[in-house]
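Re: the 302-residue chain
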Amino acid sequence: MPLSPEQSAEIEALRSQSAQTLRATVPGMEAHLYKAFPVLDHGFVRVIDYMGDDAAICQAARVSYGKGTKSVQNDEGLIRYLMRHWHSTPFEMCELKLHVKLPVFVARQWIRHRTANVNEYSARYSILDREFYIPAPEHLAAQSEVNNQGRGQALEGEEAARVLDYLKADSMRAYDHYEEMISTEGQQGLARELARMNLPANIYTQWYWKVDLHNLLHFLRLRADSHAQYEIRVYAEEMCKIVADWVPFAFKAFEDYRMGGATLSATALDCVRRMLAGESVTKENSGMSAGEWREFQAVLSE
């Protein structure tokens, strides 16, 4: 299960408390605080703390313009301008701290985003739970024939059943041996920091992850994309819902300009101009490589 009884009790205790504050608060985020949103079979995402809101972004942006400019341009318009022109520092004024439970192989992919503060559950100090990510049958897929780091068609029939059996049996066997190695009954017991090496990459870990909004949106642009690996994408999609309730103006601009927009090279932009002028543009006369042309066609057809 995603939450232990102790964690559920802690959440209830935290949500039962309230305090007056002079700092900016967001009703949508106050409703999310401490709640665990399930992801995958045993994982979750929950908001521990946040700082700032849409107004904080505008406040930071306007500091260089002086008092009184708010009447010239409203907050949403300013945020869209900042997003459209790739300004970053105003978005860095907002921060979010999450508690995330996730499989180790997802964590290793996630940690590639090095612009956050992370504190992970210590398997040197504590004993990991017997919880493993086992994909649903529809997410068991063959290697893609066109993408070396992607999936192809889902496995079927006996092959899918055999793979699931391997994943379940190997995970349990590795954990059995882990428990046996660290046990001190009738033996010295192997140190936890060594015994953990035998655990599979689908075991669950947990961490606190704190990041500013600029770098969070960069994470979401890559990981909530349809081409991202499913197991990290579902976390990003859950986080998108949270961010939309936190900074709705910023998230709408992000959806328009980052998730829903496209970046064109100078060559691709020239091809668009030629097309608008009535010229027939092909891969051969486009000046693009085969890969660039394929991606350009995909942008135009979306």
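The chain has a mean pLDDT of 91.
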